[in-house]
Specification:
Blueprint (H helix, E strand, L loop, with lengths): L1 H52 L7 H10 L20 E7 L2 E7 L2 H4 L7
Antiparallel strand pairs: 1-2
């Protein structure tokens, strides 16, 4: 009787641990997707703002770069340090609003918002 109860307890612990790991992975995937959608919405708002300000001449590149940086984007990718070169690669997203299309770089959401994820 005791041996059967011990076996059941061990199996229950394994199942509980597996469900916990699966739920943490699922939560992190859902969180990553939601934060990436937030990045896309921010990019769309930025492109709309640039379009309404009519910033498209080469002189306005500094203003566009400052606006992009304030929202967490880059016009040109920054090279990460040599240690994290293969791990951290800026992602290129092309945002469009009416007749304006601009490619903006941003770091992956799991790096920017890493304090929200469970590892």
């Amino acid at each position: 009787m005791y041996k059967g109860s011990f076996w059941f307890s061990n199996q229950f612990k394994l199942i509980y641990l597996a469900l916990l790991v699966i739920s943490l992975i699922g939560f992190n995937l859902i969180l990553d997707n939601a934060l990436h959608l937030k990045t896309h919405l921010t990019g769309q708002q930025l492109i709309k703002q640039i379009y309404e300000l009519q910033l498209n001449s080469p002189i306005d590149q500094k203003i566009m770069a400052a606006l992009a940086q304030s929202k967490g984007f880059m016009l040109t990718p920054e090279s990460p340090s040599l240690v994290f070169k293969n791990l951290i690669k800026p992602e290129l997203e092309v945002f469009s609003y009416k007749t304006l299309s601009i490619g903006l770089y941003h770091l992956p959401t799991w790096i920017i918002e890493s304090y929200l994820f469970f590892y």
